[in-house]
Amino acid sequence: MTLLDVSIVNVAVPSIEAALHAGPSDLQWVLSGYALMFGLVLVPAGRFGDARGRRNVFILGLALFTLTSAAAGLARSSTWLIVARLLQGAAAGILNPQVAGLIQQLFQGAERGRPFGLLGATVGISTAVGPLLGGGLIALDGTQEGWRWVFYVNVPVGIVTILFAWRLIPTQPKAQRRRQSLDPVGVLLLGFGVVLLLLPLVQQRQWHTPLKWLLVPAGLVLLAGFLFWERRYARHSDPLFDLALFRRRSYSLGALIALFYFAGFTGIFFIFTLFLQNGLGYSALLAGLAITPFALGSAAAAGLGGRIVERFGRPLVTTGLALVAIGLGATVLALHFVPGHQAPLATAGPLLLAGLGSGLVITPNQTLTLSEVPAAQGGSAAGMLQTGQRIGAAIGIASAGTAFFATLATTGEGWSRAFRMSLFVAIGFVLVALVAALADSLAGRHHRPVRGQGSHGPVG
User: Fold this and answer.
1) Rounded to the nearest 10 degrees, how much is the dihedral formed by the CA atoms of 380, 365, 5, 270?
2) Sign of the C-alpha dihedral computed for residues 263, 264, 265 and 266 taken in this order
3) Crossing angle of helices 415-442/249-274, nearest 10°?
4) Cα–Cα distance between 98 and 101 in angstroms, integer?
5) 405 vs 251: CA distance, rounded Å
6) pLDDT value at position 222?
């Protein structure tokens, strides 16, 4: 639900605009406010789950997400919807890091591959299938009120999941919970740093002044302050995030790959939806169907990737990144040689290939990245990893969007060309991630989730 709501709202934007008389700035906050709060809460929520028990924090986040989804569906004004989306994003940030933390807690060593494979399939499917589900819901109930079901659909799922979570997820033994300080100074430094870094990216189309980019160095200064504070705080207490994790090559390299890969693949769906709906006049449902090949490929490969990552290690991620780059490159070629109205058919095969590659990236990379993380730090480590993914996604959407609209402005109605230019930006980010994975593979450092490693630290 939490990742689905990153992309499902894209196809509902025209309906929301008409129903609530929302302006461009309002719509931007409906989309970006969710992602902003999502990224802001991840690390503190992961730390809170590590310290107070992940099951209860998971259920709390799920309940809040269900309630805020209902509030968003009931919105009677754009301001109401924006506030609901901000709270929904915060609830998603509370919920999400508990999932990887629970996997770290409940499974050991090589047996983590299968649950991480299921998690990766969920990430791939939910991110890519959002436009299809959103388009289908709008088609069923009409453009005037159908957008509300984009949010209402979370309510029955959330209620059922709360019941299952309460019954099936075991409580964390009290002996494993740590009643240490939650490091409020670290929370504030990291939070304000992430906000300042993301704000000019998510608002880049609404804030026309170049002064907005001054927020980026300001955010970097605060993040540097966060690193300084955490090093100092660690001398006498457990910090919000243990910076020693970045000395583990598997974690630091995996976080870098995740940041650049999410910058590459997340922006594709935002731009593809604009291209099909605004450029070619497709309905929300047909625009969603065009992205389905990527979702199917990602789902099929993610489960396999989780099962074989221990055998192949980082080279599996390298292979997946290469397939994504090839698939996106083939998409560019297909759009160059076929008429625009045939774009969904022409891109189905290349997007399927890119989706297969994506399934071999997200799951194995997450498994490798968290393989050496002690189980007691699983939530905060997953939170920092996902914060990097959210930052990468914001960078990717902003960069691909800039290339798309700049090309469109210079070519008039050259929608296909504008989409191709945004794809080149996405390919560039994927190639950076590929270089990082190749460097590790060629160095002979094939980091695999060593049996028993997750609970006791690195072996050897």
Assistant:
1) 130
2) positive
3) 170
4) 5
5) 36
6) 92
Q: Give the other-Cβ count within 10 Å of 428's Cβ.
A: 16
pLDDT of 176 > 90? The answer is no
Amino acid at 273: T
Torsion angle of the four alpha carbons 330, 339, 406, 263, in this order, in degrees rounded to the nearest 10:
-30
Residue 73 is classified by DSSP as: H
In this predicted structure, the answer to whether residue 460 has a pLDDT above a threshold of 70 is no
The model carries a pTM of 0.78
> Rounded distance, CA 336 to CA 351, Å?
15
**CA end-to-end span of the chain:** 39
Count of residues making up the chain: 460
What is the token pair recorded at 164?
Answer: 């299952």
Q: Which residue has the tokens 């989706």?
A: 355
DSSP one-letter code for 458? -
How far lies 383's CA from each of 40, 45, 87, 208, in Å?
Answer: 10, 7, 18, 32
SS3 content of the chain, % helix, strand, coil (to 5): 85, 0, 15
The CA dihedral of 332, 333, 338, 340, to the nearest 10 degrees, is 10
Query: CA-to-CA distance for 115 and 281, rounded, in angstroms?
Result: 40
Give the separation between CA 258 and CA 389, rounded to whole angstroms: 6
- Compute CA distances 68 → 44, 58, 151, 182, 285, whole Å: 20, 15, 9, 25, 25
Which range, of 145-159, 279-293, 324-338, 342-356, averages the lowest pLDDT?
Answer: 279-293
What b-and-e string marks burial along 259-285, b requiring 16 or more CB atoms within 10 Å of the CB? bbbbbbbbbbbbbbbbbbbebbebebb
